[in-house]
Amino acid sequence: MPTLTLMMPTKNRVSTAMSTAKCLAALACEDVEVVVQDASGDARLGAWLTDQAWGGRVSYAHDPTAVSMVENWNRGIRRVTGDYVCVIGDDDGVDARIVDLARWAARRGIAAVAFPHSAYVWKDFPSKHAGKTMIGAFTGSIEMLNPDTELRRALRSPLDPIERLAQSYHGLVSRSLYRELERRTGTVFDGLAPDYYTAVMLTALNNGTIAYVDYPVTMHGGSRASNSGRSRSGGLSEHIREFSQFDLSDILPADGRNHSLSILFVTQAMLLALQRLDRPELLADFNLATVYGAVLATRPIGVVPLVQKLIAASKKLGRSPFGDLRALPRATGRAAFVLAKSMIIHALPAAALEARGFRLVPARDIEEALRQQAEILSDIKIALD
């Protein structure tokens, strides 16, 4: 049985998926399984894999009936056999050090490993830094985290990154924890943002610890066809059409003309997880005002209908709306700042990012980006015992 499974769900993004598949196949061995779950309208990716000399190292399955991201991810996770699983997108990359990290976690009996990420901005992404690798400063240090503490912190700041949780997406999680999640709920992935849904679920079910390693063993890819690309171009309505079983009307009014939709996806997924966990103390920690403040800051809707919706949502969740209403003005200001900060990175000149500790290096694709990262961070040692 392999120690690690690298799982890549994909749908109709053949060009970037080919590059990512090459990165994964380079790591495949007896101890590393590579699973590709393809929901594309055709099997071009599978045919291309068959033609590659290394294609046999990739376990490929094509099922175009998996309409939504959730369905495709669930079909993929049922095929994995590794002790630990890392899910990445079809425009992302994986650093070779992830293999040693999984082996270390297995020796230590650690259920989940979290880490920061570097990024590659594909050439078609709407950014001033398209075609460049973006690498921050890292130390290689290891910190043991308390899952409950980290989950509560994430719920109080739902717009902040969740990289310190037990993440299925760009994280390492033991397959035994996935099995426990499926035993409890009947499924693994769910919600409009399945990565956020599982981050809440897996962290809440983790009775041990989360090891946070300050080194980017995965690389986020940003391409135009990805959800991050569609968010910037106003195309996220395509994503929501895939989910016939979910209704946003109980959370907030929204449409596909603005990027507040991505905020609502995250909200729906996190709240769905909290409701299924049946832990009212965690639900009480969720900062609903910040989510409403973010929508108010990003789209021109009236304050009165939004306040009315907030009151209804608070009551639906079994909490008093007065606390959420009191927090809304301040939450709107903070949300505007957080969202502007996340968007401005693609508009700032390279010199401004470099002054903040980022290194920007031109790259043709994710493969070259990973090679650059390995060279730039070669002096960083991860203290694995």
Structure overview:
By secondary structure, this protein is of the alpha/beta class. It folds into two domains: 4-225 and 361-376, Spore Coat Polysaccharide Biosynthesis Protein SpsA, Chain A; 227-344, no CATH class. Helices cover 46% and strands 14% of the residues. It is built from 16 helices and 13 strands. It has helices spanning 14-25, 44-51, 69-77, 97-108, 147-156, 175-185, 194-205, 227-233, 237-241, 260-277, 280-285, 288-298, 303-316, 321-344, 350-355, 366-376, and strands at residues 4-10, 32-38, 59-62, 84-87, 93-94, 112-114, 118-121, 132-135, 142-145, 172-174, 210-213, 218-222, 359-362. The strands form two sheets. An eight-stranded mixed β-sheet has the order 3-2-1-4-10-6-11-9, sandwiched between helices. Helix 1 (14-25) packs parallel to helix 2, helix 10 (260-277) packs antiparallel against helix 12 and helix 13 (303-316) packs across helix 14.
